[in-house]
Amino acid sequence: MAEIIDGKNLAKNIRLELTAEVQELKKKGIIPKLAVIMVGEDKASKVYVKNKSKACEEIGIEYEEYILEENISMESLLELIDKLNNREDVDAILLQSPIPKHLDINLAFQKITPEKDVDGFNPINVGKLSLNQDCFVSCTPYGIIKMLDQYKIEIEGKNAVIIGRSNIVGKPLIQCLLNRNATVTICHSKTKNLKEYTKNADILIVAIGKPKYITEDMVKDNVVIIDVGINRTDNGLVGDVDFEGVSKKVSYITPVPGGVGPMTVAMLMNNVIKATKNRKLK
Fold it and tell me: Choosing from 33, 91, 96, 274, which is the catalytic residue?
């Protein structure tokens, strides 16, 4: 039976460490502040934004929220980002995705100054990650690497297979794993004979948004499974991996919920504090 990678407990410990760090910053008169922008009424986004707000409150990070109308113009969105870029008291800016289709999310990410881009989506941070330079790393890939490290799961020399090529998870994760000397394969909706790749994985990371898509027959014995999926079904939240079947033959596996999700929020908080220190302790 697999060992469960307890992202919830790991995230809790990280948040305790960050709370202590914020207390030290406040003794120096430095108060970290995160500004979050959400456009429209996406239900999942509302949940994620609420979780970020609660984490900030718990750790001692000041939090500002901007809920914008669905029909806001691109010009108005960029204007708000520009104002936040120029505010000395705002250390970190996050634009919650998705945003309505009439808006250009890449242009918006480009507008967020790299020093405040705690989601790691500005092209400068993306480029620095590919060059293995110090930068802000997207929170979900960052959390995944942190989990592997905490459980002393070796990355170097391993066959790491990622299913899903999103800009938020799959693509930055390629660089994170390459920077740690894994042999990386990326699979996606156009990949033929997917099972050939999944059966060869030492570390399999699944982020495709299809409930219980990866089944027992698709993985080899003792593989490490990181399940990024969060799918709402009639039976509650489930991942992209059939946990019950797959967990019988793997060495490590993340649960859903309680795996990658809490770590994503914890690494966001980590990035906010890093941004604050970079700006105000120099």
Answer: 96
Q: Give the pLDDT confidence of 69-109 residue by residue, as tens digits.
A: 999 999 999 999 999 999 999 999 999 999 999 999 999 99
pLDDT digits (tens, 9 = 90+) for 45-66: 999 999 999 999 999 999 999 9
> In terms of Cα–Cα distance, which of 218, 217, 243 is closest to 229?
243
The amino acid occupying position 54 is K
Identify whether 119 is a catalytic site residue: yes
- 134 in catalytic set: no
What domains appear along the chain, each with residue ranges and CATH number? 29-116 (3.40.50.10860), 139-260 (3.40.50.720)
Angle at CA of residue 57, ends 53 and 62, nearest 5°: 85
215-254 burial, b at 16+ Cβ within 10 Å, e below that, comes to eeebbeeebbbbbbbbbeeeeeebbbbbbeebbebbebbb
> Which pair of structure tokens corresponds to residue 115?
């020093």
What is the residue-wise DSSP string for 116-153? GBTTS-SHHHHHHHHTT-S-PPPHHHHHHHHHHHHTT-
pLDDT digits (tens, 9 = 90+) for 26-41: 999 999 999 999 999 8
Indicate which residue of 33, 91, 117, 119 is catalytic.
Answer: 119
Structure tokens at 277: 């220190």
User: Active site includes 249?
Assistant: no
Give tens-digit pLDDT for 203-259.
Answer: 999 999 999 999 999 999 999 999 999 998 988 999 999 999 999 999 999 999 999
pTM for the whole structure: 0.96
